[in-house]
Amino acid sequence: MTKIRLQNLRKTFGDVVATDEVNMTLQEGELSTLLGPSGCGKTTLLRLIAGFYAPDHGKIFFDDRDVTCVPPHKRNTGMCFQNYALWPHMSVYDNVAYGLKLKRIKGMKFTKSAIDKRVMNVLSLVRMEGLEQRHIHQLSGGQQQRVALARALVIEPDVLLLDEPLSNLDAKLRLEMREEIIRIHRELSITTVYVTHDQHEALSISDRVAVMDHGYVQQFAPPKEIYSNPQTVFVADFIGRCTFVDGTVESMNGYIRARIPSNQIISGKETIEGYPFEVGETVKCAMRPESLHLMRTDPQDNEITGKVTRTIFVGDALEVYFSVGDISAQARLDPDSTVTTGDTIHLYAPRGDVMILPVGGVEALKKVPGHPLFAESGPASAACAA
């Protein structure tokens, strides 16, 4: 198993900054996901790890080995592309065996029997046994994805790289293949880097998630931590649903108290340890819909008053949309709740479920000592010579 360490990586294409100031360690044997909207830099970062791109500066380490300038075929990574990139004129067997036929270990080629044994083992692993003589056009999308995964695994890579592998599949197949990837990862424990723009996919399969925007990794943490303690407004908004209310910091004593436009006071927790909040600072008070309740659970709960604009029954819950001043908010209540459009509603949110976030995004993170983006780094080292 291999640990991947990324040190102050930056990659530009002309005037476009694709990734910048990327500092994180992907632990051995874990499945780490690069998550973000289109154009955020996640595929660029994956290709930097693979060696298809050379960084402008920064370093990439596999364990203690500096692979920044090592070509892709010498990194022992297996890559699964978004469009599968299978040879249409070859059989399933030949597609999977292709990498083994090219691979050399100390100058020695694999024998035919060794190739046959590895190919059949990996086809069994991805549940494609019995289909080895079929051609690619005879396979479904899900089967083609399994072949692409088998081809990446058959060379026994130290690192498995998956670039939006499920994006071309329909909803049912996506769920099926998601479970297969989880199963295979658990069986093999290969250090895996997975790219997706699907939040549910990322949360369901990952040991850790890196949420990216405009080339920056805004947060890298386990899924539960990402959801419960987002460090920026972008992360809170991108992962799940959130209501944001503008506020101004009134005091800081355990919990942060902020005054919102309706002149109500909201108390909540900080999600970035060490961020230097100041009295009078403009912040965002963020609440998940499931954190709002019709009854108090504690005398210290926040009370939020608004006017109901719409209700939607969704089976297991009643989604309530309401306004707090000019702010649109949302709550997810018990399906039997008797709330109707036009009602004045009083909702309660525990202080520990309200998140007080700075408004500066990446610039705010750069103020936090010890954070990977903390603005204290010296001049960047050059990467590979041209």
Low-confidence stretches: none
CATH fold description of the largest domain: Rossmann fold
Question: Taking strands numbered 1, 2, ... along the chain, how are they ordered across the largest sheet?
Answer: 6-9-10-3-11-12
The largest sheet, given as strand count, sense and whether it forms a barrel, is:
6 strands, mixed
How many separate helices?
9
Structural class: alpha+beta
Number of strands: 21
What is the number of independent domains? 2
Give helix and strand order, one letter per element, not per position: EEEHEEEHEEHHEHEHEEHHEEEEEEEEEH
* Radius of gyration (Å): 25 Å
User: What share of residues are in beta strands?
Assistant: 25-35%
CATH superfamily of the largest domain: P-loop containing nucleotide triphosphate hydrolases
CATH architecture of the largest domain: 3-Layer(aba) Sandwich
Tell me roughly what share of residues is in helical segments: 10-25%
Shape, please? globular
Rounded mean pLDDT is: 90
Class of the largest domain in CATH?
Alpha Beta
First-residue to last-residue Cα separation: 31 Å
